[in-house]
Amino acid sequence: MLLQLLFSNTALFALNIIAAFVFFSTGILYFDSAQISKNKRTPLLRCVGFFCLAAVSALASISIESPALALIAQIVKISGLGLILFSLTEEPILSAPGKKHAAVALPIPALFQSLVPLSGVLMALTALTYFRKVEEGLEKQLKPAGVAFLLLSVSELLRMAFFWSDTTSVYWSRFLAKFGPLWNIQHLFEFLGVVVLGAWVWGYIRFRVKLQVFVMTIGMSLVFFLTTTVFFTFMLLRNLENDALQHLKTDVKVLDYAVESLKERTAAQAKTVAQDSGVQTAFNKKDKKGLATLAAGYLSSQRASTLVIASTIGEVMVRAEDTSRTNDNVSTDPIIAAALKGQEAATIEYVPGIAVSEITVKAAVPMLGSGKAAGKVIGVVETGFVVDSTFVDGVKSVTGLDAAVFGKDKRVATTFLAPDGKSRFVGTIETNTNVVQNVLEKGEVYIGAATVLNQPFYTAYAPLKAYDGSITGMLFVGKLQTSLIDTAKRSIDLTFLGSAALIMLSVIPAFFFARFLQEHAEA
User: Where are the transmembrane segments (predicted)?
Assistant: First the structure.
């Protein structure tokens, strides 16, 4: 998304700078015409008008979002268009002998009250005035200028649609958004208008050596500054992205460490149960009722989701969360088998379900006898905790990042809320093939840009592994790409501001360079 932001903003910056360059070149052309014209007023008015348009385009390139500046820019634009239109109507049409034409009427409808439609109407009237000179006079060479202003007027009038960009309709909001479909269409018309006008102006400038050198020098400066601006802005955004991803990589490792700590806590709580003398007494007497009472107390006080006490052959003596389920054998459970050998073991288990799936952290410890059986394994205690929304909410409260826990590729706990603001997007599947291949298949940490629930994120994923090393799920932390846009946009705007200033300052040395070349050519 940041690269898209870079492309969009750079394209807009380049368009405005090129437009300023074309309008400035047109103004210079008319200024040069005034030097050799008997009626200096008309070309000078047109020159000032195009300089006004150049100033507005240059100001637009630096993206300073200020209502006051926007109003001033619009007034300057209208003033410039007014001067161009007035100079065109003041200038007589070059007619064939014997033809007479009435004065040009300039009806400005009262309907357009705001400045934006007014500037569009002025551009359209300017285009019509150029076309009138072409159709009724002998100035066929003005047709491209008419086409250019017609395209620019369409672009300007399309801007009126953005007055309704705050609509509650999602469809229209996207259609009218900045860098959206209508925005692209509007700027396409502006680009075409600028290109046509630039080609028309160059057709005159190329026959005037001084002007040609001057404009070409500015053009080369423009290309140089645009290239360096894009390069440095690209490098800046890449650094921002890399920093964000590296931070996320660290954060997901911290989250993995939190899971390991949960394993240790689970093992410690299992050990507490295994070392309880009351539990051992009831276990040795095979007092299942007393054992169930003690286990239920521990299940509640430890806030565990499961607590199982089994014999040395793996037969369940009591299952605290469901006392009706006893006598089943759990000796094939890898961590139970390890505990029966006298080892402490912990795992992360994925329990798929039709309605609800779970990731559970479990730990099993041996229950060691006392007296004559001291040091011998007489049974096993296994406890477990379901990793739920409380866990990921805690991560978000500390880091500010969205988090999720996956059972295989299915979200079983997440900070992502549904539109109702209460339910969560659990049960949804991770569809990113890069994530699935790198994390679930290869067991590697994955960092990168990804679309999560139709939103652009910078993400980090880490595998969750069972006791035997198999991958049972994933951990996820993510940061919305839009959270970096404000920082990136400020950096881009400052870069563009500096570039625009340097481009405008390059006009001064370009002027003296052109004059120097002309003087030596004439010598």
Answer: 12-31, 43-62, 68-89, 101-125, 145-164, 185-205, 211-237, 494-517
